[in-house]
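Per reviewer request, we include the raw input and output of the structure prediction for the construct analysed in the revised manuscript.
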Amino acid sequence: MTSERTRARMIERLRAAGITDETVLAAMAQAPRHLFIDEALASRAYDDVSLPLGFGQTISSPLVVARMAQFARAGKKLGKVL
């Protein structure tokens, strides 16, 4: 489930949600999210959900990561975003 097609669908969803920064989209397409989570959840790595990493921690959903990166690149004040 980590095929280029799976990642392309994630990018399509991010674009539809308003992510327009091409640098952010390119980085999201390259990030191997499936390597950071348990193998049992790897098929969901590119779904728009947060997933457990262990030790009470989670990996944020792709949309949350992309929004934070897009705001940071645009120089937005993150206090208003968070």
